[in-house]
Structures are given as C-alpha cells and as structure tokens.
Amino acid sequence: RTLRLRTTTLALLLEVLASAHSHTVPPDESRLEAILREIQTAPERTFTLDGLARRAGMAPSHFSARFRTLTGLPARQFLLDCRMKTARTLLRESATPVTDIALGLGFCSSQHFANLFKRHTGMTPLSCRKGASGPRRASDRDDGQSMGKTPHGKK
After folding, report:
1. Do residues 120 and 84 make contact, with C-beta atoms less than 8 angstroms apart?
2. How crowded is the C-beta side of 79, counted as CA atoms within 13 Å?
3. Which residue from 61, 77, 100, 155 has the fewest beta carbons nearer than 10 Å?
4. Is the pTM of this model over 0.90?
C-alpha cells in the first residue's frame, strides 16, 4: 500500500513537472528577447553576430536562424531598421547635426548614412528634419557594415 502511494505520488509529481516545463519559455528564447530589446533601446552600440550568439548561448548559425524566425529579418537588417528609426526620431526632435547622428549611430560617414537613410526611408535626412513624412518602407538591402564595426568604421 505504501509503495502504491509513493508510485502514484511520484507519477503525479512528474506529470506536474512536465506540464510546467511545457508552458515555460525556453531559456534561449528569453535571452533572444532580451537581446532584441537591447538592440532596440541602444542601436548605437556595436553588435557582432558572434557576440550576440555567445550571449544567447548559441552557435552563430543557430542564432541567425532563430533571430530571423523571431523577427522576420536577419540580425543586420534588424539593427539597421532600429538605427534608422532612431535617426528619424533624432532628426525630427533634435538639432543634432546629421554627421553627429550618423557617427553616433555607428555609420562610417555621414554620406554613407545619408545614402542608406534615403534607401531605407525614401527621403534624405534633411528632408526628414524639415518635416517631410516620406514613404515608410523597409530596405531589402543589407548595408554590409551595420554589425561588427565600431563608430567611424574601425573594427
């Protein structure tokens, strides 16, 4: 009788544990979501794929695949989108010079930034500053330098 009670209790505990485990977010998902929030709140920081993957506890290829599944974008494009949103806000709400915004967000030059901004938003940084709404479109192109470089283009 005692053995049956212990067996039933153990089976019940295992069922509760299995149920609780199936309803929790996997640890790497929590880390990925934290990384996404960090990129969104601090797009001016330098992010490398290897560094992000290491922080998420994944191999870079696995991180890239999971990141794309979660956001619908490659990590570089997601970072570029975040930088462009921040740039748009700074251009509209501050008097910070375009060059300072560009370099502060990690672009190697104001010209490179202006070209990417126009490709990404459909308007120049100065048009944005003057209040033009412009088309809001996401760039399909990768700029080739958004991740892995520090401001001013140095590794």
Report:
1. yes
2. 28
3. 155
4. no
Rounded-to-integer distance, Cα 41 and Cα 52, Å:
15
- What residue type is assigned to position 113 of the chain? F
DSSP tag of 3: H
Question: What's the token pair of residue 62?
Answer: 């696995």
User: Contact 70/25 with Cβ under 8 angstroms?
Assistant: no
The conformation of residue 23, written as its DSSP 8-state character, comes to T
Amino acid of residue 107: F
Separation CA 66–CA 82 (nearest Å): 18
The percent of residues above 90 in pLDDT, for the chain, comes to: 60
Q: What is the mean pLDDT of the chain?
A: 82
